[in-house]
């Protein structure tokens, strides 16, 4: 066998433009707004559930509060992560290259190929248009 096809990771980098930065910031701000709505909904559902549990049923009340507390904590953690990403994104300099995502590509590997050359390929896009393929 003289060759084999393999999957190799491929980084897609984006040149940060005003348009991309705005799209990223707007998306994160929308996510934060959605999380705030989810937190409000959790509060409403918790109050409703608390009203349906007899006051003397302490175990059920504790279980219900733990359940809603866990849901709230998950949303708060996500909110903190997104807030951190948002702050970092706002500080990015226009023209910087950021990894937008990573995908895989199929490469035919032949005897004598330099494996480092195969792994060092990246695609650069600017406003969704490919502007460079680097290897």
What does this structure look like?
The chain has 135 residues and is an alpha+beta fold. It folds into 2 domains: 1-17 and 94-135, no CATH class; 18-92. The protein has helices at residues 18-52, 58-91, 115-119, and strands spanning 3-15, 97-110, 122-126, 129-134. A 4-stranded mixed sheet has the order 2-1-3-4. 2% of the residues are buried.
Name the features:
about 140 residues, alpha+beta, 2 domains, four-stranded mixed sheet, 3 helices
Number of domains: 2
Compute the number of helices. Answer: 3
Average pLDDT figure: 93
Strand-residue proportion: 25-35%
- Structural class, from helix and strand content? alpha+beta
Helix amount:
40-55%
Please specify the SSE layout and strand pairing.
Blueprint: E1 3-15, H1 18-52, H2 58-91, E2 97-110, H3 115-119, E3 122-126, E4 129-134
Parallel strand pairs: 1-3
Antiparallel strand pairs: 1-2, 3-4
Concise summary:
This protein has 135 residues and is α+β, with helices and mostly antiparallel strands. The chain contains three helices and four strands, in the order βααβαββ. The two termini are 26 Å apart.
């Amino acid at each position: 066998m003289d060759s084999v096809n393999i999957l190799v990771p491929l980084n897609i980098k984006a040149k940060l433009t005003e348009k991309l930065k705005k799209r990223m910031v707007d998306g994160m701000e929308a996510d934060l707004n959605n999380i705030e709505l989810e937190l409000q909904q959790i509060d409403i559902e918790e109050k409703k559930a608390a009203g349906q549990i007899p006051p003397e049923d302490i175990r059920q009340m504790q279980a219900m509060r733990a359940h809603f507390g866990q849901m709230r904590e998950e949303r708060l953690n996500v909110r903190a992560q997104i807030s951190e990403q948002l702050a970092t994104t706002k500080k990015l300099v226009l023209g910087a290259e950021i990894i937008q995502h990573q995908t895989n590509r199929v490469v035919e590997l032949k005897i004598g190929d330099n494996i480092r050359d195969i792994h060092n390929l990246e695609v650069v896009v600017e406003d969704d248009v490919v502007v460079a393929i680097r290897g």
